[in-house]
Amino acid sequence: MKKLLVVLLFTISSLQFANATGLHTCDAGDKSKWQTKETLQKKLTEAGWKIRKIKEDGGCYEVYATNPDGQRGEAYFHPETLELEIMARRGKILFKKGE
Description:
Layout: H1 2-19, H2 37-46, E1 50-57, E2 60-66, E3 72-77, E4 84-89, E5 92-96
Antiparallel strand pairs: 1-2, 2-3, 3-4, 4-5
């Protein structure tokens, strides 16, 4: 009985972490409408961002970078519009769209 309980608890906690996608999610729709990571990188580089990594996460493009103001962190961009949705560093929100 104890073994079953331990297995169940482990399974439940694993499922919760497997579904975690990070700090933010985007309602991005069909991937065929997404702009490319390369387009986002070019846009940000031209705007003065220093990019370390771009990946897909939670329906967004998650970018590890330093923005033009020198703030380093992770930023989430909508993949269709390439608009900045949120930027954070170590859990502290530096920018949130609409606020």
